[in-house]
Amino acid sequence: TSEATVHSLEAAVRRKDELIGQLQPRLRAQCLSRRALGIQGLGPLFNCTPCRSLDSGELQRGLAELGLVLDAAEAEGVCRRWDRDGSGTLDLDEFLRALRPPMSQAREAVIAAAFAKLDRSGDGVVTVDDLRGVYRGCAHPKVRSGEWTEEEVLRRFLDNFDSSEKDGSRAAK
């Protein structure tokens, strides 16, 4: 009875998760079939709100304008699944990350080799101190002009790869 209800609810959640999982390749294929227009068309979609992010209703309407039709439940599921920062909305980065195809093994190997080169301490985390051994910021135009210090150049370089917290380090994954 109550156990059967729990199993029934769990099965419904699994089916919904599977449905949302099937949407990702469908949306990816639809965007890619539109070539650059598919991706370019997303810019205005995300720029039309002050916070440059979309809730599920805005996502549903915006994608419909691009010819990508989702029902309300699908749009809500997509928002929940792809919302990496827990804000309840999708920003352009979250959306593009979800649409990006998986990396090939060859590309992952190149990235791992580059990371290993930057990780001078070998601890699995690249820090500004690690970068000092492989990157010289003194020739950077903003350091030469006196606008930034070499430390700032290294930090800003690392920030390009850092999470939203920008703590001055980047772990391998």
UniProtKB/TrEMBL annotation:
One of its GO terms (molecular function) is calcium ion binding. Pfam families: EF-hand_5 (PF13202). Transmembrane segments: none annotated. The keyword Metal-binding applies. One of its GO terms (cellular component) is plasma membrane. Keywords: Calcium, Metal-binding, Repeat. It comes from the Eukaryota. Residues 70-105, 106-141 form the EF-hand domain. SUPFAM superfamilies: EF-hand (SSF47473). PANTHER family: CALCYPHOSIN (PTHR34524). This is Calcyphosine. It comes from Ursus maritimus (Polar bear). The lineage of its organism: Eukaryota, Metazoa, Chordata, Craniata, Vertebrata.
